[in-house]
Design goal:
This protein is an all-alpha fold. The chain has helices spanning 14-27, 32-37, 43-51, 59-72, 76-88, 93-101, 108-122, 129-137, 142-165. It has two domains: 9-51, no CATH class; 59-165, AhpD-like.
Length: 177
């Protein structure tokens, strides 16, 4: 089978062209994964709405979720993208590697988040009571549970899309662990 083609600006709808223009202005480019989402009239806009939604979680907490889920789902595209984003948001190279390994020594609250996300992702939502209790014990709330699951869902979608399409990585490739 022939590889999926990443559409250019000229090959997407006028609404998606407008989104491409905004992404290019904000990011300097349209990431390949986003470009492929524009194959759908509403897919890219819907994804970006979810991705940019207000959350009770910090940007660092979101990146922990993104890196953990992408690693579990073996998505090299998202792991590479979120390694870059994690660095832009204050994580060091070593901290990102720790996050990707799923055991965070530098922050107990982020480690509880990582353990919860690993269990939820690996067990398709069936987290143990111990994992939930540990998550709540470090200061997360019911709102945090909802927001964490929203981000896991968003990341799982993009991981699955990238797996099917085999989107070419257009970020520095994250090191293997």
């Amino acid at each position: 089978m022939e590889a999926f083609k990443i559409p250019t600006r000229e090959e997407v709808s006028p609404a998606n062209q407008s989104i491409f223009d905004k992404l290019k202005q904000k990011l300097g480019k349209v990431p390949n994964s986003y470009a492929f989402m524009a194959s759908s009239e509403n897919g890219l806009a819907t994804y970006l709405t979810l991705s940019n939604a207000v959350s009770s979680l910090t940007i660092k907490e979101k990146e922990v979720i993104n890196l953990i889920v992408s690693g579990i789902n073996d998505c090299h595209y998202c792991t590479s993208a979120h390694t870059v984003i994690g660095k832009l948001n204050g994580f060091t190279d070593e901290q990102i590697l720790e996050i990707r390994r799923g055991n965070i020594s530098f922050d107990p609250k982020l480690d509880a988040l990582a353990q919860f996300v690993k269990e939820v992702t690996n067990k398709k939502g069936f987290a143990s009571q111990e994992s939930i209790d540990n998550f709540l014990a470090v200061g997360y709330t019911n709102e945090s549970i909802v927001d964490t699951l929203m981000i896991i869902s968003e990341r799982t979608f993009s991981n699955y899309l990238n797996a099917i399409v085999k989107v070419p990585i257009d970020f520095p490739v994250a090191p293997e662990i």
